[in-house]
């Protein structure tokens, strides 16, 4: 099964994980929980009237968990290396294999640098799909932006990376579209279980 490893559990990383796991790719997140969201209060995230950043993150974590993302809090990724058919991600003494890596480490760009991603000045150089110069490695959120440090932009970057991975895997442009009947089906099933 295709395995995606996401490094960083802020809006960028969790958004990427939500989209990949929801659409059938096995996804693991490692996060050291230093996200700026713990310092923020959101008045500018569309659809969210006013919410504490930590509360927003709690909801987002529950959302990704509900789809089955394997989320490791407090585990720092110390190295990401390209292999012949993917990536090796080092966490402490453990090595994890991945087909794709999404870097979402906020303003810290060290892993992108050691992986050999090209930079544009201080920023990791990505295209609109968020793919770096290293095939299969994506960089998202604050690490690819000089000024647009906003939660909704990071979340959008994560979603763009995930959809590009999904399009590559499925061999066609992929959209994650749901309709009201999907909600009726899901919540109907949940209601039946109660
Ligand atoms: C005081 C303050 C107020 C703000 N207010 C707002 C606001 O009102 N509205 C708004 O839109 N934005 C606001 N922001 C900005 C917003 O918080 C950021 O834009 C957003 O958090 C960036 O998301 P991100 O996912 O790119 O990075 P982050 O949220 O920074 O997440 C990166 C995550 O990666 C983890 N990480 C890093 N390296 C590793 C590693 N090697 N291994 C594992 N995990 C790692 C970090 O611990 C962190 O949890 C505010 C920021 C601050 C500081």
From TrEMBL:
The protein's name in its UniProt record: Pyridine nucleotide-disulphide oxidoreductase
Residues covered by the FAD/NAD(P)-binding domain: 3-38, 58-153
Alphabetical UniProt keywords: Flavoprotein, Oxidoreductase
Organism whose genome encodes this protein: Halogranum gelatinilyticum
InterPro entries: FAD/NAD-bd_sf, FAD/NAD-binding_dom, Ferredoxin-NADP_redctase_2
PANTHER family per record: THIOREDOXIN REDUCTASE 1-RELATED-RELATED (PTHR48105)
GO molecular function: oxidoreductase activity
Pfam family, any one: Pyr_redox_2
Domain of life (superkingdom): Archaea
Taxonomy of the source species: Archaea, Methanobacteriati, Methanobacteriota, Stenosarchaea group, Halobacteria
């Amino acid at each position: 099964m295709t395995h995606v490893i996401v490094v960083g559990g802020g809006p960028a990383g969790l958004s990427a994980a939500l989209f990949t796991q929801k659409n059938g790719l096995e996804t693991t997140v490692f996060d050291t929980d230093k996200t700026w969201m713990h310092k923020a209060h959101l008045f500018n995230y569309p659809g969210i009237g006013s919410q504490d950043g930590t509360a927003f993150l709690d909801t987002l974590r529950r959302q990704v968990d509900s789809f089955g993302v394997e989320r490791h809090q407090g585990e720092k990724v110390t190295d990401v290396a390209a292999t012949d058919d993917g990536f090796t991600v080092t966490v402490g003494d453990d090595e994890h294999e991945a087909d794709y890596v999404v870097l979402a480490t906020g303003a810290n760009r060290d892993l992108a640098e050691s992986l050999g991603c090209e930079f544009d000045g201080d920023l990791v150089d990505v295209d609109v799909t968020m793919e770096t110069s290293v095939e299969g490695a994506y960089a998202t959120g604050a690490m690819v932006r000089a000024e647009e440090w906003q939660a909704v932009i990071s979340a959008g970057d994560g979603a763009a990376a995930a959809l590009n991975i999904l399009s590559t895997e499925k061999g066609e442009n992929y959209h994650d579209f749901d309709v009201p009947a999907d909600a009726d089906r899901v919540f109907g099933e949940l209601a039946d279980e109660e």
